[in-house]
TrEMBL record:
<keyword id="KW-0964">Secreted</keyword>
<comment type="function">
    <text>Ligand for members of the frizzled family of seven transmembrane receptors.</text>
</comment>
<dbReference type="GO" id="GO:0005615">
    <property type="term" value="C:extracellular space"/>
</dbReference>
<dbReference type="GO" id="GO:0045165">
    <property type="term" value="P:cell fate commitment"/>
</dbReference>
<dbReference type="InterPro" id="IPR043158">
    <property type="entry name" value="Wnt_C"/>
</dbReference>
<keyword id="KW-0879">Wnt signaling pathway</keyword>
<dbReference type="GO" id="GO:0060560">
    <property type="term" value="P:developmental growth involved in morphogenesis"/>
</dbReference>
<dbReference type="GO" id="GO:0005125">
    <property type="term" value="F:cytokine activity"/>
</dbReference>
<dbReference type="GO" id="GO:0007517">
    <property type="term" value="P:muscle organ development"/>
</dbReference>
<dbReference type="GO" id="GO:0030182">
    <property type="term" value="P:neuron differentiation"/>
</dbReference>
<keyword id="KW-1015">Disulfide bond</keyword>
<keyword id="KW-0272">Extracellular matrix</keyword>
<keyword id="KW-0217">Developmental protein</keyword>
<dbReference type="Pfam" id="PF00110">
    <property type="entry name" value="wnt"/>
</dbReference>
<dbReference type="GO" id="GO:0000902">
    <property type="term" value="P:cell morphogenesis"/>
</dbReference>
<dbReference type="InterPro" id="IPR005817">
    <property type="entry name" value="Wnt"/>
</dbReference>
<keyword id="KW-0449">Lipoprotein</keyword>
Amino acid sequence: MAKVLYAVVVYVVLVFFVNFGESIKWLSLQQSHLQWNLSSLNNNPGRGIRSGVRSPCTIARRRYGFVKIQAKLCRHSMEVMPHVQAAAVLASETCRSVFMNRRWNCSSIFMAPFLPPDLTRATREQAYVYAISSAALTYTMARACSSGALYHCTCASKPPAVPNGQFQWGGCGDNVQWGAQFTRRFIDNVEKHTLEKRSKEITDSKKVVKMQSDEAVGTNAVAAVNLHNNRVGRKVMVESLRTQCKCHGVSGSCNIKTCWKALPPMSEIGVRLLEKYTNAIKVYGDAFGEIIPEKTAKRVKKAASTQLLVYISKSPDYCTKDDKLGSFGTVGRQCNVSTSGPESCRQLCCGRGYRTVVDEKIERCQCKFYNCCYVKCQICRTKTQVYECL
Ligand SMILES: *[C@@H]1O[C@H](CO)[C@@H](O)[C@H](O)[C@H]1NC(C)=O
Ligand SMILES: *[C@@H]1O[C@H](CO)[C@@H](O)[C@H](O)[C@H]1NC(C)=O
Ligand SMILES: *[C@@H]1O[C@H](CO)[C@@H](O)[C@H](O)[C@H]1NC(C)=O
């Protein structure tokens, strides 16, 4: 029975044109200056497109990769859109700073709405980008709720757990629940839509399901993997909530303490997801969007797989430029000669070696105050050596 199942666990080549990875194209908002005004729509409720009014949602659909579902949600609740835009910036900046010194440095995220192959082939890197996007959107919305910026939501409801210390729940907790719910609607629904549509097409037309090489990845498998990684991103958010407290009482005493659940800085979430990226597991995805760990024989437990990021295609080493794989190569990247981590010249330059470039800076220095208000400086030349991969 299991073998039959495995026979079905194959990659599907779909003969029609497919658009991978549509649900993260909104990350391109990071580079936009869209004004999310309600006024243009209020004159014409719900008829932004047909009436010829260029609503920001229409522009987002045309230029910033919003898919239909997202544009609809945008028109329906436009006041949240500035926060979506902020989430795009947050996701990109977090990803970039976490991967800054690595061979793959998250630069492809800046090409959105165009997505290079490293973000469409269901790679480990794609897994990270989906998870961080989902996390960043949840984060931004949860914070927007608790800061009172949205009228759809307020502070998080009080945790069910009875406090064990000398405190009571109060204050205003970050509303991760609302944030996660919005993220499911804005991102996950796009992938779910893809899954449903393709599954139906396969069932209807009985298209030939072919065994394919590692490189040919079926749309449904990718959608299922994306959905999983989105969930991981949100789960990390929920798990990162921590209790923060404030004391009240006469003259600084802590007679009354109120506590609430708050999120840590996003950089912390980025690092947690990096661990999940490092430990990501390879899976098969079947035509109907089931994810099955490749090493079932080694008993990768299903429970474990829900905690980790998953991917389908093996990543290249990102050492040399290869447009087909979405690898930019590391020629010319700055490396560090005195470390042994991913940023070291050894690893970053992939054994090709490096050259030393002398960087001269001219600065004002050794500044001294004379009398009260007069500053005199000297001109200093500082030479630093930087190392660049060959
Ligand atoms: C939209 O808002 C900006 C400022 O936030 C304003 O300058 C602009 O005129 C507004 N546009 C419309 C169409 O109301
Ligand atoms: C990221 O890597 C690309 C390709 O190697 C490079 O062009 C770019 O400058 C890098 N970005 C940063 C911030 O190091
Ligand atoms: C190289 O690594 C060392 C040790 O971590 C660090 O002190 C130094 O600032 C790094 N150099 C550069 C150019 O990043």
